[in-house]
Input
Amino acid sequence: MRIVIPGGTGQVGTVLARAFHRDGHEVIVLGRNLRTAPWKVARWDVHDLSGWADLLDGADVVINLAGRSVNCRYTPHNRKEILQSRVDSVRAVGQAISCAKHPSQVWLQASTATIYAHTYELSNDEFRGVMGGDELDAPDTWRFSIDVATAWEKAFDEIAAPRTRKVTLRSAMIMSPDKGGVFDTLLALVRHGLGGKAGDGRQYVSWIHEADFIRAIYFLIQRPDLDGVVNIASPNPLPNRDFMAALREAWGARFGLPASKWMLEIGAIFLRTETELILKSRRVVPGRLLQEGFSFSFPEWRAAAKDLCQRWIRKEKSPDLLNLEIKGPGVHSAQPLR
Output
């Protein structure tokens, strides 16, 4: 297959590009800055289609991951960039697909599980999930994230692409041992004795192992009958206190210093980020994937954490290891689209 990944120079894009490239597919990553990679990387500008739009013509799959990182303080300037980068990239990709003589068969568009409401009790799936933003105790920064996710998906829904199947990926945190990723950050806390519960520890963590993330993307590519919103998450989210306890156990750490809410607020200021990433309860489950028969290799966090810790250690000893393989049952490549 020929797979084009706009905004694919970050961690998630690298996870996908590495897997597709390893499986023998032609991979083209579009980014604002050129980087050396085993696959093709081309520069793009969402305000100027010349020089990159033709790369989408004839592509089997487009996976748009473009958008400014939300791991920052939500200043007025950053809020504007976060919102515009997502909406503008969707419109640019949509324009390129609309102008193509041979538009891609499927367009997978990144979104986020953060769009669902902060909740401890009810699980949010695609059928009965409650959209966030109206919670009485939700801070302004949480409402901003909901506004961004809503605008992101609205822009995608408004694109008319009659010859291209469109899928919205509401992804949870994708766990891989890559440096700088979510798992690497959480493991750093554990390794330094700081991996206790955050706040009261009741908030749910929705996650997915990278092997299952890759397999879910292949699954959606190969299912021409599936479109619309799909939650990309493990079927078993768990409270932060249990999540961190399992990670400490996988690493072999006996103790992790907890962080109270006020400590997190102060730390977020110094780290130039927002506590929403830690304190919002995301209890999201993959209703459609389960309904359609998708089988998870790592449905439980305890086993996933153990695998990720082992691979993180091997990566430290051999940095090129992640470019060669993903250890985990059930990872497979897709056959050509039919």
About this structure: Residues 327-336 have pLDDT under 50 and may be disordered. The two ends are 11 Å apart (CA to CA). The domain at 2-323 is CATH 3.40.50.720 (Rossmann fold).
